Description:
The complex is a heterodimer of chains A (374) and B (494).
Chain A: H1 2-33, H2 38-49, H3 52-77, H4 85-102, H5 107-136, H6 140-158, E1 166-167, E2 174-175, E3 187-188, E4 197-198, H7 200-217, H8 219-229, H9 231-237, H10 241-259, H11 261-268, H12 279-289, H13 294-316, H14 322-373
Chain B: E1 2-5, H1 12-19, E2 30-32, E3 35-37, H2 42-47, E4 50-53, H3 65-70, H4 74-77, H5 81-93, H6 109-122, E5 127-131, H7 139-154, E6 158-162, H8 166-172, E7 175-180, E8 183-188, H9 195-203, E9 221-233, E10 239-251, E11 255-259, H10 266-274, E12 281-286, E13 289-290, H11 296-301, E14 304-307, H12 311-315, H13 322-327, E15 337-338, E16 341-342, H14 344-357, H15 374-386, E17 392-396, H16 404-419, E18 423-427, H17 431-437, E19 440-445, E20 448-453, H18 460-467, E21 473-475, H19 481-484
Parallel strand pairs in B: 1-6, 1-7, 4-5, 5-6, 11-18, 11-19, 14-17, 17-18, 20-21
Antiparallel strand pairs in B: 2-3, 7-8, 9-10, 9-12, 12-13, 15-16, 19-20
Helix pairs in contact in B: 14-15, 15-16
Amino acid sequence: xxxxxxxxxxxxxxxxxxxxxxxxxxxxxxxxxxxxxxxxxxxxxxxxxxxxxxxxxxxxxxxxxxxxxxxxxxxxxxxxxxxxxxxxxxxxxxxxxxxxxxxxxxxxxxxxxxxxxxxxxxxxxxxxxxxxxxxxxxxxxxxxxxxxxxxxxxxxxxxxxxxxxxxxxxxxxxxxxxxxxxxxxxxxxxxxxxxxxxxxxxxxxxxxxxxxxxxxxxxxxxxxxxxxxxxxxxxxxxxxxxxxxxxxxxxxxxxxxxxxxxxxxxxxxxxxxxxxxxxxxxxxxxxxxxxxxxxxxxxxxxxxxxxxxxxxxxxxxxxxxxxxxxxxxxxxxxxxxxxxxxxxxxxxxxxxxxxxxxxxxxxxxxxxxxxxxx
Amino acid sequence: xxxxxxxxxxxxxxxxxxxxxxxxxxxxxxxxxxxxxxxxxxxxxxxxxxxxxxxxxxxxxxxxxxxxxxxxxxxxxxxxxxxxxxxxxxxxxxxxxxxxxxxxxxxxxxxxxxxxxxxxxxxxxxxxxxxxxxxxxxxxxxxxxxxxxxxxxxxxxxxxxxxxxxxxxxxxxxxxxxxxxxxxxxxxxxxxxxxxxxxxxxxxxxxxxxxxxxxxxxxxxxxxxxxxxxxxxxxxxxxxxxxxxxxxxxxxxxxxxxxxxxxxxxxxxxxxxxxxxxxxxxxxxxxxxxxxxxxxxxxxxxxxxxxxxxxxxxxxxxxxxxxxxxxxxxxxxxxxxxxxxxxxxxxxxxxxxxxxxxxxxxxxxxxxxxxxxxxxxxxxxxxxxxxxxxxxxxxxxxxxxxxxxxxxxxxxxxxxxxxxxxxxxxxxxxxxxxxxxxxxxxxxxxxxxxxxxxxxxxxxxxxxxxxxxxxxxxxxxxxxxxxxxxxxxxxxxx
Lengths: 374, 494
């Protein structure tokens, strides 16, 4: 048995390694085609990415990506494709920024209030898609894409001077009321030159632990995974599939609500027109890369943040920064292909092994019987 | 017509997969028409005229019959009118009764099998491989199938089929090969071999019989169903009554056998009792408690064990390890969980116990359920359900696709639990099993319970004719009736 376990581990690592190798090869070819030296580029990325200020930047960025990856992964484990993480976290961050700006409580109340509002709004927005799916049979893919567009429209309607936002005369930007200091999340500094690490990384890590614990150690998690693997078997086993769809969308949305929090609580302290968008889609790539596994998602998030960080430096050194986009795209594509290939190979291999072992056992008993007969 | 018999896990399926190009042999040769061939994938086999009807149907539920048939062979006759004509032509010439525009998800298992056979013929197969083709059919249908197969043979086609029903094998095959533990242990001439000899060749032991000797029926009702009605849209989208005023009682220690041609409401009845469908009217009482509208999980916790008809769809998580499959369906019960938390260690220990006690042949509990053979998967399911000491066991085709050894074991388990007061609702297409195990027999036809019979005196032929709607009420064994009844199957709907 040990052997099969070790093999499973190897197979598990094989897919991302294969994918990354493929991505390197393709990116090298693209660089060569544009007349650039690929290895110089990789070296520039490598040496820049490990600088201490880069490390801090990567950790901070990865915090946001990690939460987005988790939000998507919750859906994936259920066989639900929540494309709407993007709209969910923006609407959630906006609502949280508005509520947080309106009240001024001590930090011990202010912070939980903001975070809970964000999670509730995210959950509600995703839950709508869940209700539509179980009630009217609307595919969650379509519903969440549409809800993304609606979230954008709602935010741009409300984010106007005189409604829920103010015009900043100096910078000419529109933003919500700045959060009181009590609503700022803590940061910590390891190296003054590198800048502060955002405290929300702790929350993200806790979310990862909670994700792992709930999915693999609780009854609820088992039910959720069951529905993801076979809806018919789940129903026969006593899971209320419809309720589970709504619940998991709520969980996914609540997690998505956290995605905007590092930015809001640790950086901007307000929701302005330049609030980062599109992280929900990055989350899909990261969840795929991480195989919906909390550890894998962390690696994926760090990799993505690393690539983001180095893209500017590449441009500074005379490369096109778009090469990083190409790289990210190729990684996602090859990850999907490699996982499926490795999965099939692993299943087939296991079936053969089981067959062989049983045949061997049967041969042995047959031999013993014969010997006994003699 | 060549029959292949052997226990589950003996290697029949693997051999068939090799013949069909789904798996590559390590050594050895295959020759067709005297010509040596190598298949790298099923496409090569199809090109050589080898067609396969799998035990687990390979059909896309959300496509129509026509679409399923042309899928992958669009080049033959297109996907439109020409294909339809061809399908109807094949269907008519072999009497398969195919309706091309029905969605496959709305078909019963027997109809699906016919679609599979047609699919193979449509691709121009000259050699047909059938994996347990008769497991889902009633005697009359088996005869019809064998007539079809003889027709195919007369036209020069070759048929290889796998069956556990040795009587059938002897009556229809021209040649028999027995395999055990991955090797050919012998071949037999059906003209001179008896069932007993064949069975001994196959397992090295006597043929088990499902017969139940002493009665353990008590007068304490365990499951009472009254006035149960259920409507559902049929193949053409029309709301139809699929369960019509169903009423019966199963007592402690009683096995109630439900006979019926597939698609007459048995599956829906099971799903209504399990709570997977909410009945429109009627009362279901389990051990004195009204569970008419209780959710499935509650019913399972209250003591219903369920061996589903389609183990891949309803009984297993194929890509999950065995120990997670042991939790499936009983996640709220000991030893799988404590409060809201799973107890993985205890579940694993208990899986080891089930594997040992129920002789599930596997190298360990961490392999996926998909890597086990069908019979071993079934043993795991039976073991799991019995481990929770059910009050009522719903066993739908508990021994379908299961070898003789495992079959006897499953029968033993049902009998033993019955002695301890278990009530069993048994649904089976194997009439010998149904008659042998049951204390009471009911016949289901078009959503109604139309007849009942005493298993002690009834013959499979009499039961079979009642299943086609030819007779109703209390079935009495009359020697002269037996000869006339089997022809009267005109009432069956195709």
